[in-house]
Amino acid sequence: MSSNLKEQAVSKIRFKDFQDKIVSADEAASWIEDGMTLGMSGFTLFGEPKVFPGALAKRANEHKIKVNVYTGASMGPDADGVLAENKAINLRLPYQGNPSLRKEINSGEAKYIDQHLSHTAEQIRQGVLGEIDFAIIEAAAITEDGQIIPTGSVGNSPIFVEKAKNVIIELNVSAPAAYEGIHDVYIPKDQGENLRDAIPVYDISQRIGSIGIKVDPAKVRGIVLSDRPDIPSPLFEPNEETQKIADNLLAFLEKEVEEGRLTEKLAPLQSGVGSVANAVLSGMAKSKFKDITVASEVLQDGIFDLIDAGVVKFAAATAFSLSAKRVATLAEDLERYKGKVIFRPQEITNHPEVIRRVGVISFNTALEADIYGNINSTHVNGTHMMNGIGGSGDFARNARITIFVTTSTAKGGDISAIVPFVTHVDHANHDVDVIVTEQGYADLRGKAPREIAQIIIDNCVHPKFKEQARDYIKRANEKGGQTPHILSEAFSWHEHYAKHGTMLLSEKKK
Amino acid sequence: MSSNLKEQAVSKIRFKDFQDKIVSADEAASWIEDGMTLGMSGFTLFGEPKVFPGALAKRANEHKIKVNVYTGASMGPDADGVLAENKAINLRLPYQGNPSLRKEINSGEAKYIDQHLSHTAEQIRQGVLGEIDFAIIEAAAITEDGQIIPTGSVGNSPIFVEKAKNVIIELNVSAPAAYEGIHDVYIPKDQGENLRDAIPVYDISQRIGSIGIKVDPAKVRGIVLSDRPDIPSPLFEPNEETQKIADNLLAFLEKEVEEGRLTEKLAPLQSGVGSVANAVLSGMAKSKFKDITVASEVLQDGIFDLIDAGVVKFAAATAFSLSAKRVATLAEDLERYKGKVIFRPQEITNHPEVIRRVGVISFNTALEADIYGNINSTHVNGTHMMNGIGGSGDFARNARITIFVTTSTAKGGDISAIVPFVTHVDHANHDVDVIVTEQGYADLRGKAPREIAQIIIDNCVHPKFKEQARDYIKRANEKGGQTPHILSEAFSWHEHYAKHGTMLLSEKKK
User: Fold this and answer.
1) Is residue A160's pLDDT more than 90?
2) Is the separation of the CB atoms in B27 and B54 below 8 Å?
3) N or C: which terminal CB in chain B sees fewer CB atoms within 10 Å?
4) What are phi and psi of B443, to 5 degrees?
5) What is the share, in percent, of chain B residues with pLDDT greater than 90?
6) Which overall architecture, per CATH, does domain A240-464 show?
7) C-alpha torsion sign, points B380, B385, B391, B396
8) Where is the Acetyl-CoA hydrolase/transferase N-terminal domain (chains A, B) (predicted)?
9) CA-angle at A356, arms to A353 and A359, nearest 5°
10) A289-345, pLDDT tens digit by residue?
């Protein structure tokens, strides 16, 4: 540890009792035993410990140790990646997105519980996910009264710190000082004998909690130092297809305004992460919408431009997911947008109470959809995990309008993203209001299944797959039912692709 | 109309301005035009109009009229039945359970939107289900200030009355006077420019609303009179199988108490309707649980016995579903249990905010489950609608513990209710904590999919289907994945049954 690093750290550890708690990452890792459960900060690569996991991975490799790793959401190569590569993970929850870990999960080497992101804290509170042995939390600073100031995410850190037997703080001296004041930490009471309060978010921009995570000082075993910068995500520049999807989604929202169901302020907006979400945000900068509130899980690059453009007036989420360009200017951006951006625990951003109350408009990406509006968000071919359901289920069930977006085809057009029967259902059609592809949008509200199949095929399916989709429902309808299907052909498009390299039933590519 | 009926009615119409509004059912029906949307009271056969629908069905038959019928939930033969038999229904939502209507739905003659029961009111509020032309509401009385006192359900009546252009009251003179005071009508504000309040239910037994439904007097077009009694549901006496399921479910709850995750007061309880729910309630009367609060959708017969036994101290729901025996004593029961039973609008009983806050334990019946814990609640063979999802999704997503119950087999043992892949997913495994059959229970919490398959097969599948289930997952596991499947065999059990009269792959019965 460089003496310079330690010097910088001491000025950020403003709670005097903690200043002698600095230890090396290796020493902190040595406290971890086989079978322990760790609660780590981190969400979409932001706010995760960046030094401790490497030390733990080394120890795990040397001593054949496996641990359970609970987080906010996905972690990067220096956390999930290095742990997976060293076979250090027994059980992982509630979300991941790392290629090395994905491989471990799909081979059955690592167990993975793919959870609604608002559920984890409640399950920990109820005691059904076991005890948390160590919480490992990245911090930007420690306040005079011992509060941990998180960095670029809050995630599940508050519940980890509350319930863990021991806490390790990874103090990141390179984290912008302006992170302090951006967090709004509110922890619901345990369920039990005492009545619980309402979650007091009525206006998304209200502050309801503290600027940091309160911790029992006796539980803090050590402070590890880091100077690694925030981890950027890929920059998702719109391409022709994602731009069309964004245009179609915006056309739907404009129609809602036109018909008087929404105003130009829309309703609090949640958007998933990725290229379509980014294209929609870019599109909004040029739209007639204004004074929008964002009530999301993750804030991407576009959010700052939208605030500048007057389109967004306030944004709440639990984490950043920023490209290298925005990471570079983060310190000044945090200063500039102070009071317009806030980070809450994920159980609050994704809380069914808040989502239903404020009437969120939610849009998330589907891996595949079916002609009746069911959505697969997670499993390739119904078997192999891609990332996870994330918070999409928290929003989809309780939102005012639930939208799923996908390109109509994948793999150069050989796969139709809209199939007769999805191979895994994450969102049943009861929860799905609108489906958007680059072909158009299908508004499923107020429609029965046979009508839904019709408008999804007409508006969203790629032209090359329309005929075989119509043939399927024509023959299925002859057999009757509320949701006509031919079970023996439900997955025939997938099977044809596996055998012949295309879902086009009239073609064989192999 | 008998003069005696009218005389009785006048004493119940305590709002003087309404006393000259009495009309015949035929006259009221004559106001209904083709294509109109009607919002009717009624939930699990309780509280529905019993005279108006017959008159409407007659008119529909004579004039080839079709209407959209929105309700709380299921209606009986004199409402859904007679309307369906006369081809009077264009679109029906959000739930039904009538054999004649089911036939119309599955043939495609009537359109049916199977909705989460807390969603309908919000969708009406947002304007996406069109305008309500007439609300038709069964009443036990009309108060001095013009409030409609509902009968055995509240359902969606408050939102129908608020949003309808016209209101028809069907005053039921035979409804017990003691219905007055049992309702607690609270209507959330519209979403829009103004901030919404919290739903102020913290303790389930708190009263939050009015005793009746407030109505703009100018909208009340007419009052139809009825003296038909409440409609009883079948009496579900426990049999050997349902008793075993109940015992297994109670064993799970006892384990939760033993492990300190619940106390003997459990947590507010929601139970579905039917034989298993009734067997569980009967079993509870002899259990060590006490002072339980019921936070349910429907109250069945057993609830009164449980209050007598000191097991239940308070029960809130939106409707009764009672057998003939309990209907016979309803007037005195309502008096006796006043202050211990309350009926709220279904958007409040099923509100995600309330369910998450109080931490409901939810149990509902599955039509089929799969080895990974996905639940089909609605579609036979993935195609034909049975009843609907009802409120199970409102509870399952947001409850503290979500339990699904089913017998392990059906059709005399030829069908396994637990299959490799359900033919329709209403509840994705993210929402399912525990599955119970007469064989045992499987606690899925904190388990990954491969483990889930193991314990469901071990604990819940019928012995005669265990071997073929194990063979399926063994071969599926070889192909890898988070959720191993063989897509070409996913529905093979269903297909074998269709061809050979049994799901046992080694047998052929036809």
Assistant:
1) yes
2) no
3) C
4) -95, 110
5) 92
6) 3-Layer(aba) Sandwich (3.40)
7) positive
8) 16-190
9) 140
10) 999 999 999 999 888 989 999 999 999 999 999 999 999 999 999 999 999 999 999
Token pair 């388990």 is found at B447
The pair of structure tokens assigned to B169 is: 């009251």
Closest among A73, A400, A358, A71 to A198, alpha carbons compared? A358
Instruction: Tell me how far apart the alpha carbons of residues A318 and A6 are, in angstroms, rounded to a whole number.
Output: 29
The token pair that represents B208 in the structure block: 């939050």
- pLDDT given at position B237: 81
Distance CA A389, CA B411 (A): 36
Å between A486 CA and nearest CA of chain B: 8
Mutation site for A-interface testing, chosen from B163, B252, B356, B387 by largest number of A Cβ within 10 Å: B356
Active site residue B495: no
Q: Does A463 touch chain B (CB under 8 A)?
A: no
Task: Determine the distance in angstroms separating the CA of B222 from the nearest CA of chain A, rounded to an integer.
Answer: 29
Domain B240-461 has CATH 3.40.1080.10: yes
Residues of A in contact with B267 (CB under 8 A): 191
Structure tokens, A147: 């509060």
Q: What are the residues whose beta carbons fall under 8 Å from the beta carbon of B232, sequence distance 6 or more?
A: B45, B322, B323, B324, B326, B327
Banded model confidence at residue A401, pLDDT cuts 50, 70, 90: very high
Nearest CA in chain A to B123: A400
Q: CA angle at residue A471 from A469 to A477, to 5 degrees?
A: 100
Q: Which residues pair with B137 in a beta bridge?
A: B169
Which of the four pLDDT bands, split at 50, 70 and 90, describes residue B1?
low
Report chain A's mean pLDDT, rounded to a whole number. 96
Residues of chain B with CATH 3.40.1080.10: 3-226, 240-461
The CATH superfamily assigned to B3-226 is Glutaconate Coenzyme A-transferase (3.40.1080.10)
Question: Looking at the predicted structure, is the pLDDT value of residue B337 above 90?
Answer: yes
Cross-chain residue pair A261–B379, CB shorter than 8 Å: no
**Using a CB-CB distance cutoff of 8 angstroms, which residues of chain A are in contact with residue B476?**
383
Provide, rounded to the nearest whole percent, the portion of chain A with pLDDT above 70.
99
Q: pLDDT category, A1, cuts 50, 70, 90?
A: low
CB B183 within 8 A of CB B343: yes
pLDDT by residue (tens digit) across A61-87?
999 999 999 999 999 999 999 999 999
Cite the residue boundaries of each domain of chain A with CATH code 3.40.1080.10: 3-226, 240-464
Q: Can you read off the two tokens belonging to residue B194?
A: 């103004």
